[in-house]
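Example with several molecule types.
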Amino acid sequence: MRSFGGRWAPYLYVAPIVIIAGVLLYFSIGFAVYASLTDWNGLTRMEFIGLANYAELFQDRTFYIALGNTVKFMIATVTLQAVLGLLIAVIAKERIPGSNFFKALFFAPIAMAPAIIATVFKYMLEANYGALNETLRALGLLGANETIQWLGADLGVWSISAINVFSWMGFSMMVYFAGLMAIPDELYEAAELDGAGWWRRLFSITIPSLRGTTSVLITLGIVGSLKTFDSVWLTTQGGPGVSTHFLSTFLYQARLDREAGYSSAIGIVILVVAFALAVVQMRLSNREN
Amino acid sequence: MFRSPRAVPRRLLAATGAASALVLLAGCAGGGDDGVAEDGTVTLTYRTWIPSLEQWQPIVDAFEAENPDIKIDFQGADGASDYLSELDNLILAGEVPDMYGIQTTSSFDDYAEYALGTDEFAADWIDGVKPELLEETTTSDGEVKALPILTAGSEFYLYNESLFEELGLELPTDYASLVEVSKAAQDAGYSSFAMGAADTWHAADFFVWLSNQYGDGGEIYDAAAGEIPWESDTLVEAATAWQKLFDDGVFQQAATSTTTYPSARDDYLLARKSLAMPTGSWHVSATLAGNAETPGSAVEDDTLGMAPFPTIGDNEATSTSGVDYALALSADLEGPKLEAATKFAEFLAVGEGQQIWVDTLQGFPAANDVSAELAEDQSETALESVQQVTDSLAAAEYPRKLVSADNDGLENDLGVVLQNIANGADPAEELATLNS
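Resulting structure tokens for the full complex:
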């Protein structure tokens, strides 16, 4: 019997996704590359200016602030989410009373829209009447007319990181928990017979066995950090000044300022950074394996 | 098991044919391409960020009562910046709305490119619009491309008169009394003037108003045009005064993390946690009985008023003013749709629609011989507030918005610089970063 498509069958099978991805993704990337080489206001004016947008970008102080904030956020959230997620997953696996309740509790933020979480935190972290500062005042840890500017220039990035950890730690926990279930119990039993304690089993069996899971979470964390937008825009909008801009909000602000060509250049830089970090991470992971 | 390869194209052709027929039928059912239905009704699309739905309903009701054969497909947006993003997308998709709201900022020319010149539809009645406002809706090529509908100005403050009285305070009249009132409010556990300095538009509006109180006034417009450096003595003096407002506690702590809407309004003034909030003339509507904002809030039973912000600089403060909202008609309009859109434009610019909208105090009239008509049950404070704002706008000397040919994002850039100055940065160094 002659099969569908003959020797073209493999190509026909992948054609739909290639066409969809080609139109939606690669065309968009190609257009963004072209737009980044122009002085484009998003509507009418579009003049080819070569690499001028990139030259301007690498001299723009806001770019370095946004890049620095994105890197700080990436390191803080990837590390904290992995460490806390793993610890909670390991504790949850111990089947202590109430562990299922805590698993559900830590996972609950995943079911909430990031926009809602960011808005609630914005009210909690407000300097004058926010719940956090009011609590500190009630406990006598903050004077009546004193404020801590949780969303100000100094603490803003760390507060946004904390919001992200709250939002996504449950996801790390569940991924680690699934990984933990795949580790044979015999390994732990053998280690116990050899006299290994809880911490020794964690560092000698659990963590090495979850290397693949950690690698996936790190890759997801890196990509997630580069596209973090809602929790920043809904809490600080990149301010005060430009102190809490991330690359994604910097891009958006440039577009709002009708600098669509410049905004495209920022987008291309984000794409290159994301690609490079993903490649580095995968190579490191492969080397370890 | 695979189907015969030949069956697939045949089925595909059949499905495509059926879909095409449906599309054609749907197209026929909707009426002709000229936007006129079989019963003669013309439908116009209208995209804008104001009026709000509450304000729009009486306007459209009055218009459709006069013109039953014209329907308006109205779609508002959540703020001007969201609206502009949506408008950009529509324009790029080749779907310019029949009528659209337009701002008289640096990007005016961009949007005006898709608009019909007013001489093609409004020549007979455009003299009903205040002529000085038409300058703001004129492109750099000298063509009037939009109709001014509402004007607005800065800088005013909305205050809680009941709270002032409770604390035994008088409205401030100069900088010294501004500081004194603010300190008294803080001592009583309230914030003073809840400034939404996180909004770059508001920081910029305030600074434009403030800067005209130094030197000969008006230097900021020269700086925006690139004719003088931003770190000129006058502007540095104004920026230093701006910084002092934060240092002296006139504005609340962390004001650069507070937005005007909703934070300063909802979390401070309407939550009865601040004495007042700086804002623009459009917010005088909150002083009126029957306003939509105060019911259900902590100030529901209080009396609110509005007054011009006291003088801070060397020269007497005068409000800034300008076209806050203009209406453009698509350059693609022709035939019955153009005729219908012209009727609506006239209704909103110089007719009954102008009066209805102005009565909500969302803005002040762009038409000659129109003034807000208020209900008789207004408090003395509300009437006085409206009068003060009206008088102040009538005496306005300078435009509210800066226009730059080189930098469409100047307002945001200036706002960022002002936030940095408010948080302690050197005024001259920060202002110098605006030089292009």
